[in-house]
Amino acid sequence: MWQLHSFPLCPFSRKVRLALSEKGVTYEIWREHPWEGRDAFLALNPAGRTPVLRHKGKDITLIDSQAICEFLDDAVERSPLIPGNAIRRAEIRRLVALFDGNFYEDVTGPLLVEKMKKRIVAKAPPDSRTLREVMRLAAQHLEYIDWLVDSRRWLGGSRISLADFAAASHISVADYLGGIDWDGHEEALGWYRVMKSRPSFRPLLAEHMEGIHPPAHYAQVD
Question: What are the residues facing 27 on neighbouring strands?
Fold first, then answer.
């Protein structure tokens, strides 16, 4: 069986979890806190980052969320993650890179530092100026999602794709950490509610990070 090394608030692991579930691939979660630097984990991924997807019986170790998702799309025909012609697939990959890159650097990454790592590792309070800047940048990203949802059925086009799963993974972590203000973003919120209602998404909403509690609306799908 596949083993996914991850922790609950890793957005890249969430993207892989959604891909695995949508593809109908059975897996089990191995909880890994990469900041602990365990030797056994570093032997799997010397970069010390999650996710890592491992199949011990087949001696396969896959690293990097995008590489893992593209492997799954190649290996499992069901529910294509990057559907369509070459132009449509390029657009999906562009959006995945935007959320895994820009959104993570602007929003998810700083929130994880300020509201998770400082609390768990450094035992320090978050920086209020950083959090205000995160909220400002998150609003800009939500405005772009508003536009995307208003101009097409799904973020990447007419069919649900890895672009939706990547975006929802990052947004769900930011929402868990209180970094999303949905006011004025009805289009983005409506899309996200649809994503939250998918069976593949429900296990993410039910899982909590020890000592860090999400806002009351986090797991609500209506």
Answer: 2
Q: Which residues contact 82 (CB under 8 A, 6 or more apart)?
A: 70, 73, 89, 92, 93, 161, 162
Q: How far is it, in rounded angstroms, from Cα 9 to Cα 150?
A: 29
- Residues facing residue 62 across a β-bridge: 53
Cα 196 → chain centroid: 12
One of 1.20.120.790, 3.80.30.20, 1.20.1050.10, 3.30.470.10 is the CATH number of 86-206, namely 1.20.1050.10
Burial class (CB in 10 A: 0-12, 13-18, 19+), 175: buried
Query: pLDDT by residue (tens digit) across 48-94?
Result: 999 999 999 999 999 999 999 999 999 999 999 999 999 999 999 99
Domain with CATH 1.20.1050.10 in the chain: 86-206
pLDDT confidence of residue 122: 86
pLDDT in tens, 135-161: 999 999 999 999 999 999 999 999 999
